Amino acid sequence: MLKTENDIIRLVKEDKWMMDILFSAQSLNLPDWWVCAGFVRSKIWDTLHGFTERTPIPDIDVIYFDERNVAEAEEKKLEERLRAIHPNVPWSVKNEARMHLKNEIPPYTSSVDAMSKFPETATALGLKLDENNSVVLAAPCGIQDVLNFEVKPTPFFAETKERAAVYEGRIMKKNWMSIWNKIKVSHLH
Fold it and tell me: In what order do the strands lie in the sheet with 135-138?
C-alpha cells in the first residue's frame, strides 16, 4: 500500500526500469537534477489502480538548474547523450534556470521551486539519486493529492485566470480519467 514518501521510494527502488532511468540521468552530472512529473505520477497511479503493465508516458522529463549555461542548445545535447544510453526513451531535458523566460514568470530559485509551479499538484513530483545512490523524492506540494487520485492546480496555477486556463487545457488534453478511472479532477471555473 502507498501511504508515505518512503512507500513511494520503495516502489521506485523495486522498479528496475525506473532505476535505470535515474542512473542514466545521474550520469549527466547536472546541478540540481530531477526526473519528474509523469514519470513519478504515472507509476503511483498505475500501482494504485492495480495495473500490471506500465502506462506509456509521452516523455521522460529531466530537469536541472544551471544559471551558468541557459542555452537551449545545451538541453538538446543532453537529450542526445541520454538517447545514446536509452534510444527508445522519449527524453525531454529542461534547464529550469531558463524556463521562466519561456513561461513569462519570475525566475525560479531551484528545480524544486520550478516543480512547485507545475500545473497540477499530482504532477509536482521529482526523483533523483543522492551521492550514495539512494532514491530521493521531492514533493513540494505534498503527496496526498497523487495518493488520493486528486488532480488539482498548484497554488501557482490557481493564482491567475491565464494560468487557470492553461491548467484546464491540460486536463482536457491529457484526459487522464480515460486511463486511470479513479482520479477526480478539480476544475477552476
Answer: 91-95, 60-64, 34-36, 126-129, 135-138
Report yes or no: 13 and 22 within 8 Å, Cβ to Cβ.
Answer: no
- The DSSP secondary structure of 27-81, one letter per residue, reads TT--TT-EEETHHHHHHHHHHHTT-SSPPP-S-EEEEE--TT---HHHHHHHHHH
Tell the burial category of 166 from Cβ atoms under 10 Å away from its Cβ (0-12, 13-18, 19+).
Answer: middle
CA-nearest of 8, 11, 100 to 63 is 100
Domain boundaries, the chain: 5-147
The alpha carbon of residue 172 and the mean position of all alpha carbons in its chain are separated, in whole angstroms, by 19
Q: Are 122 and 128 in contact (CB under 8 A)?
A: no
**Which amino acid, one-letter code, is at 116?**
S
* Model-wide pTM > 0.85: yes
pLDDT digits (tens, 9 = 90+) for 56-101: 999 999 999 999 999 999 999 999 999 999 999 999 999 999 999 8
Tell which phi-psi region holds residue 37, choosing left (phi > 0), alpha (psi between -120 and 50) or beta.
Answer: left
The highest-level CATH class for domain 5-147 is alpha beta
Specify burial of residue 9 (Cβ count, 10 A radius: 0-12, 13-18, 19+).
Answer: middle
Cell of 63: 530537469
